[in-house]
What we know:
Layout lengths: L3 E4 L2 E8 L3 E2 L3 E2 L4 E9 L3 E4 L8 H11 L7 E5 L5 H4 L2 H7 L4 E4 L1 H11 L6 E4 L5 E5 L2 E7 L9 E5 L4 E3 L22 H15 L24
Parallel strand pairs: 6-7, 7-8, 8-9
Antiparallel strand pairs: 1-2, 2-5, 3-4, 5-6, 10-11, 11-12, 12-13
Amino acid sequence: MHSSLVTDGIYRLSAKVHNILFEGVWPIPHGVSMNSYIVKGDEVAIIDGVCGWDGVPETLFRQLDDIGVDIKDIRYVVLNHLEPDHSGWLQSFMKLTQGFEIVASAKGIDVAKAFYGFDERFRFRAVKSGDTIDLGGGKKLLFEEIPNVHWPETIATYEMSSKTLLPCDAFGSFGAIAEDAPFDDQLSEKQLAFSRARLCATTRTSSRPSRFRSKRRSRSSLPSRSR
């Protein structure tokens, strides 16, 4: 896949996966796209990621070249959610660079340390609702805690100047993204309906109620272009 421009200074990177069982149980007949976002101000942040399966993190890293970002220029790694399909890439990433700060909820930082063995070389910033990070160049990130969407450590990230919401596993559905139609508003409601319903059934029924009620195709990370 190739990167795509979401709005000025914000890019989507994506890896498609087919022929898998979600949580080892539910078939996903149309595959799924795991999405990551680059926000470029004076400093660079990457928000969310992909799984750590062979070759998948490298798909993400190659797309950085498309948008002129050196992996060592990434200053902030924002972990909206620590489930392995979002965070498994970190093991490959931390072998290539250590000059970044990990941003997550306090619970998310605990999970990251437990999963990936981060040591004293790495910096952490625990964020809560209302906290911000100014990337310079007009780009500013605002964080909101959205626990149990669908793990208790989950946050959403909002880029204030462009009004772009990067809401992790909220507002999306299953289904691999088409290169020529990466945005939900380019698809028919019929194309979206099955995958949205399937995602809600497989990710929400075992979670406590929260303010959001859906998951991922790509709005799990992919914002509307009008925002």
